[in-house]
Amino acid sequence: MAKKRGKKIRVAFRKNRENRTRSQNLTRDALDGQTDDQDAADERISGRGQLTRYRTIVGVGGQNEAIQREIDEQACLTGRVLRAIGANRCDVQTSDKRMYVCTVRRVLRTMLRDSRNAVVAGDRVMFLPTGDGEGVIERVEPRQTVLSRGSGRFEHIIAANVDQLAIIASASEPRLKPALIDRFLVSAARGGVRPVICINKADLVDQEELHPIIELYTGLGYDVITTVATDAVGIEALREMLVGRETVFAGQSGVGKSSLLNAVQPGLGLRTSQVSDDSGKGRHTTRTTELIPLAGGGWVADTPGVRQMSLWDVAPEEVEAYFVEFPKYVADCHYPDCTHTHETGCTVKSAVEEGHISPIRYESYLRMFHND
Ligand SMILES: Nc1nc2c(ncn2[C@@H]2O[C@H](COP(=O)(O)OP(=O)(O)OP(=O)(O)O)[C@@H](O)[C@H]2O)c(=O)[nH]1
Ligand SMILES: [Mg+2]
Ligand SMILES: [Zn+2]
Predict the structure, then answer these.
(1) Using an 8 Å Cβ cutoff, are 182 and 165 in contact?
(2) Whether residue 261 is found in the same domain as residue 177
(3) Which of 50, 88, 135, 239 has its CA 20 to 30 A from that of 211?
């Protein structure tokens, strides 16, 4: 087989790198430990000294167009990131279950700077062990699946290489928001992850009240379960959904994500706290995404609650493709490029009027289409 030729890749520096004063640099370098010295030795810095915004590194194009730097693979270990707390502390587990606390090679952070987080929970990485259970992450393997959302102009990757998203909502406290469920459904479909919907805190409302929403989503073909984390209701069904899979728990703060995991796997002891009385909102108790091994096999990731969920990298005209009930009607719209928002002769809108498409879902579609 032909030897992979390294190709030069131009990598933009973060702007703030140029303007730092010397003393700040020293502080930062000290915080980063030895990573920067290594970087300087590894990478050829192109051209015009300190003012250059780019440097040229040697790398190989990987799968999915991902850019991979050439590294000393022999010296590296492979592992799975269980938790990433900023770039300077990633907990990595090797296949023989040893744990390493790793930093991330600065150039890797620079290469992946369009994402808010260069290394995320669930990533498979190669890292250079530096002794004492510590190491430096040198490479992130191409991600098979990603669950992301927009965070300002950055992509916030919630987790990578998982196969299931449990969208957790609560019947009340905080109020159930179908619009949020729909956004998670779109981002799951986009990321190649199977969604399931879990409506927790079923004890806080009359069962009747939940029927329409359960019927809506089961009617669309999604798996829906209702639970009471604090009273072991539905927990067995949830456990069955999780076994042998890698599942991310996501939803608003306070819906009971951590409580559900504590119920599924007694002894976990994840921190939970009451939603605030006045606003009915959660308190953002869980602060970082963490992969947790399940006793029956598989993994779950507890994540911090989100306030809102903006889609990442989904163009308005792509949104319709993620609404499973739309395709049947789309083909008959009068205009071939119908956006199903204002056009005459739109069969999607007629389907809403005639009760074949839920107005709740259509409202979600409109908001996502308008990036609202
Ligand atoms: N009544 C009722 N309360 C519940 C249920 N599940 C969880 N709670 C309570 O809801 C509150 C919030 O639960 P958490 O598990 O901390 O919620 P979370 O989704 O992990 O929140 P963040 O970590 O902030 O995202 C706690 O006081 C739980 O005891 C339930 O099924 N019924
Ligand atoms: Mg939590
Ligand atoms: Zn239309």
Answers:
(1) no
(2) yes
(3) 239
Contacts of 257 (CB under 8 A, 6+ apart): 168, 249, 250, 251, 286, 302, 303, 305
Report how far ligand 3's centroid is from the alpha carbon of 326 (Å): 9
Ligand 1 neighbourhood includes 255 CB (under 6 angstroms): yes
Residue with tokens 């602060």: 287
Are residues 205 and 134 part of one domain? no
Do the domain assignments include residue 148? no
CA 229 – ligand 2 centroid, Å: 12
Q: What is the amino acid identity at position 248?
A: V
Boundary (domain end) residue, out of 105, 140, 175: 140
**Is 255 a member of any domain?**
yes
253 lines ligand 1 (CB under 6 A): yes
Using CA atoms, how far apart are residues 128 and 72, in angstroms rounded to an integer?
Answer: 9
Tokens, residue 323:
């609404």
Q: What is the pLDDT of residue 47?
A: 35
Q: Which residue has the CA at smallest separation from atom 16 of ligand 1? A: 272
Tokens 């190709």 belong to 7
Question: How far apart, in whole angstroms, are the C-alpha atoms of residue 115 and residue 244?
Answer: 29
Are residues 155 and 114 in contact, defined by beta-carbon separation less than 8 angstroms? yes
pTM for this predicted structure? 0.83
Q: How confident is the model at residue 67 (pLDDT cuts 50, 70, 90)?
A: low
Asked if 163 and 123 touch (Cβ cutoff 8 Å), the reply is no
Q: Which ligand is nearest to the CA of 229?
A: 1
pLDDT tens profile 251-261 = 999 999 999 99
Q: Is residue 183 part of a domain?
A: yes
Range(s) of the domain holding residue 339: 316-369
